[in-house]
Amino acid sequence: MNSTSLTALVLAHLEKANNSSAGRSAHTLHGGREHALRQTVVALAAGRRLGEHESPGEATLHVLHGSVRLHAGRETWDGEAGDHLVIPPARHDLEAVGDAAVLLTVALPGQSPS
Length: 114
Description:
Layout: H1 6-18, E1 24-30, E2 37-44, E3 49-53, E4 58-65, E5 67-72, E6 75-80, E7 84-86, E8 92-96, E9 100-107
Antiparallel strand pairs: 1-2, 2-9, 3-8, 4-7, 4-9, 5-6, 5-8
């Protein structure tokens, strides 16, 4: 059984994001090619974005720290620490309103659980 402190992970990756020219840092907690489920902590420095991209399939976003704004077409969703969102199956981007960290959970199509 593996256990991870999300609090410690968020703090470490927010520091990395703020010291990175890209303004972001990520760490996959669970998943990979052999798994149907992938969970990744993504940290973004204030004002930075994950540019518009296709939806990876079924996905959720749990805000762990700070505040974010998700844009999908003409729809916008503002999330604060503790909020959870089912990501729409459309092109979208994610913006950090302030320093922020999220847990992205994705069910990968075509993968079978190990």
